[in-house]
Amino acid sequence: MADAVALPAPMTRRVPGRLWIVPPTALLALLFFYPLALIARQAFFDDSGVANVAEFARVLHARFFLNALMNTITISVAATAGCLIVGLVLGLILAFVPFPGSGVIARLIDTFIALPTFLVTLAFTFLYGSAGMLNAGLMEMFSLHAPPVDFLYSTWGVILAEVTVYSPFVLRPLLAAFSLIDRGQIEAASVLGARPFRIVRQVILPAAVPALIAGGSLCLLLTVNEFGIVLFIGAKGVITLPLLIYSKAIQESAYQVACIIAVVNIVLSLGLFGLYRLAAGRLGV
Amino acid sequence: MSVPAFTGSNVVDVDAAKIRGAGSNVHFDKVSVAYGTHVVLHPLTLDIAPGEILAMIGPSGSGKTTALRAVAGFVKPASGRIRIGATDVTDLPPYERGLGMVVQNYALFPHMRVEDNVAFGLRAQGADKALIGERVKDSLATVGMSGFAGRYPRELSGGQQQRVAIARALAVRPRVLLLDEPLSALDAQIRRNMVEEIAKLHRDLPGLTILYVTHDQTEALTLADKIAIMRDGRVSSHGATGELYRRPPNRFTAEFLGRANLLPVTVAEAAAGPKGMATAKLGDAVLAGAGRSEKPGDRTLLCIRPQHLSLTGDEEHTNRIVGTLKEVHWQGELTHLVLDVDGTPVRVSATRLPVSLPERGSAMPLFFTPGDTSLVPEDVRG
Q: A18, A64, A58, A12: which is closest to A247 by C-alpha?
C-alpha cells in the first residue's frame, strides 16, 4: 500500500459577513416592529405609562366591538365561501372545458388582482346602486317609484363586492393545481364509467384541496382586513374591525380604544396568515 | 346506454373465468380524424375480432394513438363510425362505452389505495358492495398484486403500478381493453417481464379483445394476433403477425417490423401462384424467394431477415450472395455483422461465428434458404 499522503489542512470556511443582518433587521424594526410595538403599548398602557388592562377588558366586552368582530367574521367567512365557490366553478370551466379564448379570460380575471378594491364597489354603485342601471331599468320597466333592488348598501353588498374582488385569489392557485393533474387520470376515470360530476368529486377535488385551502386562507386574511370596500359602500350598521379602528382613531380620537381593537385585528390576521402559510407550504407555492 | 358488465347475470360467472369478459369486436368504418384542416387519421376501415389482440404500431405521429383515442371516445371522428359489438359508439361519451384502458404513465389515482383504485370503475357503475369486493380481489389476484391492496400508488414500483392499472381496467369486465403504450415508462428488464405477463393474462382471458398501441415491434410481435402498421395517418399494412413478419407486403412494413434487409433485384422468373417461388437476379447471383404477382423483368426488393442469413452454406441454404465485411459488433449471445452487397448494407445476426472470421474489407459469402425469403414491392408510399 502506498504511504498515506498528508492532505493540507482544510481552509477555514469563510463565514459570510454577519453584519449583513443589521440593515434588514433595522429596516424591519423601524418600519414594522416599532409601529406595532407602539400600538401594543398604547393598547395596554395609558398615557402616563401605567398598565391599563381594565380598559382592554372593557373594550373587548363592549357591544360596538363585539358587533364589529361579529360583522368582520360573518362577512369574511361568507365572502371566502363565495370566493371558493366562484373560484372553483370558474377554475373547472377554464381548466377542463375546452373553449376558444379560455386563456384570455383567465388572464382578464387575473387583472382584478391588480385593481384597487374600491373600483369594483364604484362599478357596483353604477350597476346596483339606488340610481344604478339595474334599478333605473326596473323602475322604468315596471313604473316603480322607488328602487326595488336594495342589497348593495347592506352586508350582502359588501360580501358580493368582496367575492368579486377576491375570487381571483382562489382561482389562481386552483388553476395552477389543475394544470398539474394528470389528464390520463381523468380519461381513465371516464373510460371506467365515471361521469363528470364523479370525476370532479373523486379525482379533481382531492388534488385541488391544498390549493383551495391556500386560496381560501388568503381570501379570509384579505377580507378580514378589508377596509376600502366597506368604507366605500357605507352600508348602514355594517362596521367591521378595520372600519371601527378608523372610526375610533380618526373620528373620535380614541387612540387607546383603536389600538386595543387593532391588537385584536393583528392577532386575528396573524393566525389566518399562519394558516395560509401552512396550506401554501403543502401546495408548494 | 348502461354498461352491460354489471347486470345481475354477470355476478355468477366467477371462478373458472373470474375476469373473463365477453369480448366484443371493434369495427372502424372509414373513421377519419382531423384537427382543423390537418388530417391525423385518414379514413380507416379495420376490424378487430372478439378475443383478438390487435397491435397498432408505427412511428410517432402515424395516427395509432389517435385511432385508440377515437375508440375510447376522447377524439371525435370527422367522419365514419366506430362500432363495438353491435353498438355504434361513435356518439357515446367514454363512460358509456364499456371499455378498460391502460396508459403509459399508469394514471392511478394517487390519493386512493390500490384497492380503491381497482374498485373505482365498479363504484362509478353502481356495482353493489359484495360484487366490488369480489372483483377487486379477483382482479388483483390476476395480476399478482393481492398483497398490495392497502398500499398507495406512491409506495409501488413502476411495474407494480402498471399491474394495478391493468387490474383496475379488468375489474369492470371491459368489452375491449385499450392499451396505449402501456410499457413505455418501464425499464427494459421489467418491460420484458410485463410483456410475458400480458401474454399470460390473455391466455387466461382468451375472450378479451385488446387494442394495443405501441411503437415497440417486439411487444407487438410477442403479443399480437394481428398487427396494423400505421404510417402518416393510414394503415400501411394489416394482417396476421406471423404472415406480416414472414411476407411483408411493402418496404415500410419490412423495415419497420424486424428491420429486414432489402436487396434490390430484378425478377427473372415469376412465381407459379400467389405463394409460389420466384427467382430474381442480384448482379450475377440468381436467388429464389416467395413471390407475389411479379412479372419477369420487374424491379423489386428481396427481403431477408438478419437472423436468416448464414455464414456457411448447405443443401438448404441454396441462395448465395457475396458481400464485403464492414463491421462486426459482438453483443454477447449475438454477433451483428454488417456487409456491403452491391452497395446495399446487409445486416447479419449470428449466434455462432466461424473460427476464423475474414478481415474487415474482405469478401464474404452469405447463404439463406428460399423459404425465408420473399419479394417485396418497391413502394414509395410503403
A: A64
Q: Does A205 touch chain B (CB under 8 A)?
A: no
Distances in Å between the Cα of A33 and the Cα atoms of A39, A214, A227, B294 are 10, 26, 22, 93
Least confident of A125-139, B17-31, B98-112: B17-31
Predicted local distance difference test score (pLDDT) of residue B22: 61
Test B101 with A188 for CB contact under 8 angstroms.
yes
**Distance from C-alpha of B302 to C-alpha of B261, rounded to nearest angstrom:** 8
Q: Which three cell numbers stand for residue A247?
A: 372610526
Q: Please report, rounded to a whole number, the percentage of residues in chain B having pLDDT higher than 90.
A: 54
Average pLDDT of the residues in A192-211: 93
Query: Can you list the pairs that A148-153 forms with residues at least 24 positions away whose Cβ atoms lie under 8 Å?
Result: A152/A124, A152/A125, A152/A128, A152/A233, A152/A235, A153/A233, A153/A234, A153/A235, A153/A236
- Give φ, ψ of B220 to 5 degrees: -65, -45
Report yes or no on A15 lying in a domain: no
Whether residue A184 and residue B124 make contact (CB cut-off 8 A), yes or no, is no
Indicate the number of domains in chain A. 1
- Asked if B120 is an interface residue toward chain A (Cβ–Cβ < 8 A), one would say yes
Q: Do A191 and B99 touch (CB under 8 A)?
A: yes
- pLDDT value at B381 more than 70: no
What does pLDDT average to over chain A? 87
Whether residue A185 is contained in a domain is answered as yes
Mean pLDDT rounded to a whole number for chain B: 86
pLDDT in tens, A101-120: 888 888 888 787 778 888 88
Out of B93, B106, B121, name the one closest to residue A192 (CB): B121
Cell of B272: 407459379
CATH at A234: 1.10.3720.10
Chain B contacts of A182, Cβ < 8 Å?
Answer: 105, 107
The pLDDT of A57-73, averaged and rounded, is 93
Categorize the per-residue pLDDT at B7 as very low, low, confident or very high, splitting at 50, 70 and 90. very low
- B52: its cell numbers: 383478438
Whether the pLDDT of residue A11 is over 80: the answer is: no
pLDDT recorded at residue B16: 32
User: DSSP string covering chain A, please?
Assistant: -PPPPPPPPPPPPPPP-GGGGHHHHHHHIIIIIHHHHHHHHHHHB-TTS-B-HHHHHHHHH-HHHHHHHHHHHHHHHHHHHHHHHHHHHHHHHHHHS--TTHHHHHHHHHHHHHS-HHHHHHHHHHHHSTTSHHHHHHHHHHT-SS-S---TTSHHHHHHHHHHHHHHHHHHHHHHHHHHS-HHHHHHHHHTT--HHHHIIIIIHHHHHHHHHHHHHHHHHHHHT--HHHHHHT-TT---HHHHHHIIIIIS--HHHHHHHHHHHHHHHHHHHHHHHHHHHHHT-
Q: Is residue A152 part of a domain?
A: yes
* Residues 6 or more apart in contact with residue A54 via CB below 8 angstroms: none
Q: How confident is the model at residue B13 (pLDDT cuts 50, 70, 90)?
A: very low
Residue A42: inside a domain: no
Please determine, for residue B20, whether its predicted confidence score (pLDDT) is greater than 50.
no
Residue-range definition of the domain harbouring residue A176 = 49-283
Q: Which of B371, B343, B362, B369 is closest to B282 using CA atoms?
A: B343
The reply to whether B149 touches chain A by the CB within 8 Å rule is: no
